[in-house]
């Protein structure tokens, strides 16, 4: 089980939100979230993991070959900078 998945599960359980609320906001089924929390899933579908992390203001970033959970605001600032560089070199 990846560290990112463990961190997202921890966010869900600490949030006090029901599995239905998280699933509804992420656009997945309630069974998916319940399976995560019950430990029946060891590696989730990445797009779903990203959507669930986004609910809590987090993003998943690949750094040095490892996925990490970071604040989404930090990602947005770097994305803005990257787009500026990209446009300059076109």
Please tag this protein with its features:
90 residues, alpha+beta, 434 Repressor (Amino-terminal Domain)
Question: Can you give me a brief rundown of this structure?
Answer:
The protein is of the alpha+beta class. The protein has a single domain (3-88), classed as 434 Repressor (Amino-terminal Domain) (Orthogonal Bundle), CATH 1.10.260.40. It has helices spanning 3-15, 19-26, 30-38, 46-55, 72-88, and strands at residues 58-63, 66-71.
Portion in strands: 5-15%
Mean pLDDT: 83
> How would a textbook summarize the main sheet?
2 strands, antiparallel
Q: What oligomeric state is this?
A: single chain
CATH fold annotation: 434 Repressor (Amino-terminal Domain)
- The general outline is globular
Helix content: 55-70%
User: What is the CA-atom radius of gyration, in angstroms?
Assistant: 15 Å
What CATH architecture would you give? Orthogonal Bundle
Query: Any low-confidence stretches, pLDDT <50, length ≥5?
Result: none
SS element count, helices: 5
Which CATH class is shown?
A: Mainly Alpha
Number of strands: 2
**Distance N to C terminus:** 41 Å
Order of helices and strands: HHHHEEH
SSE class: alpha+beta
Number of domains: 1
Looking at this structure, what is the CATH superfamily?
Answer: lambda repressor-like DNA-binding domains
Strand order of the largest sheet: 1-2
